[in-house]
Amino acid sequence: MKFSCFFLALSVSVGFISAQGLYFPPDHDVGAWETIAPEDFNYRADRIQALYDFLADNETKSFMLLKDGKIILEQYFGNYTADSIWVWNSAGKSLRATMFGQAVEEGWLSLDDVSSDYLGTGWSSLTPDQESAISVRNHLTMTTGMDDSLDDCLEPACFEYLVPPGERWFYDNPPYTISKDILEAAVGTTINAYTNTRIEQPLGMSNGFWFPFGINTIYLSRARDMARFGLMIQADGSWNSEQIVDSAYVHLMTQPSQDMNPAYGILWWLNGQESYIPPGVAFSLPGPISTEAPQDMVMAAGAYGQFISISKETGLIMVRQGDLGLFSLAPIAFHNDIWELINQLDQGPNSTSEITPSSLSVFPNPARERIFVDGLAAGGATLRLYNLEGRLLGVQQDASSYPLDQLAAGVYILEVEVDGTVQRFRIRH
After folding, report:
1. Phi-psi category of residue 183: left, alpha or beta, with phi > 0 → left and psi -120 to 50 → alpha
2. Which of 147, 171, 187, 415 is least buried, going by the fewest C-beta atoms within 10 A?
3. What are the angstrom distances between the C-alpha of 235 and each of 17, 20, 204, 425?
4. pLDDT of residue 411
5. CA distance 420 to 97
6. Mean local confidence (pLDDT), 414-428
């Protein structure tokens, strides 16, 4: 088989620069992972420290920033080290999507197969006709049409019909969770064994594994293993000149998978889209997921801020593992805050105001009863207030301020829209 050939080649490989200009580290870190000095990018030591302080204040375990495969920044917090493992949470969805790509390439299944072919009939409470309309693709794109109010349950009675598959997008975990059963039935082995031979060994990953947790099966690994996986995606599915995952499939899963939520591919989050639907929300929010991250960024994201954030255009990969005081299925605002600080690493002391995309500002911040927007023309703007989960809390039309006196103390996102242009501010109350 083709896999046995390149496994042998990879087992003796060392890091090198590929034709794409990307560096690949040696297997299992046997040898030094090449680095780039932050000074080469004019990164200021005080700004790096400010980034690390922010990460530490938000219960971070590990952080990495790579450029073209080489490490610019790598920091571990508390007792966490480069050899410590941590949960990916829902960032593991993107890894599982990649495993399905392997299964498709090897001919084990098609994304358009009926999922009952692998789960068996009667896996849900739907009628046979309704059940037979759900494809593997629906499970991997959050479009099964199931009633999402029945969470944390995998019994057939908990899979109830709501709308036809493909007509509604909602971040619904149970239909995704049983994709493990689809994959294992298709390839004829366990998800751990399949991940090990198809991804972990070729990429030189160490100590990663899938683990049952509640109704879910979650992936755990080191931060450097997250970075290796991200680097393979950045390289269009290749590693050390060997094609690990079909490049056409990598492109497919990192493009909009449906029209309802253009910011979602096949279990990947996509930046730079006109709108997005966050987890737990049934409606779209305007603008990209992250205004501060590269607009071509694709992201594996999990609860409590597990991130693999990848940009081909800039060559950057950002990895973050850790807790987060406020639970969030995919803490988008926190991810944006990290990128905002990354963007400031090479800025001078007074340059922040000079590069602001507009003349708008908010004050006071923190605010007690009302937050004001300065720089608006007569007539004001449309102001929208969101919590950190991305849930819309209220709208003020033709306004220059927003009342906060009825809200609990905390951090919010104020969105200011003027003539179709949107700017967001992180505010404290």
Report:
1. alpha
2. 147
3. 12, 7, 15, 34
4. 80
5. 35
6. 87
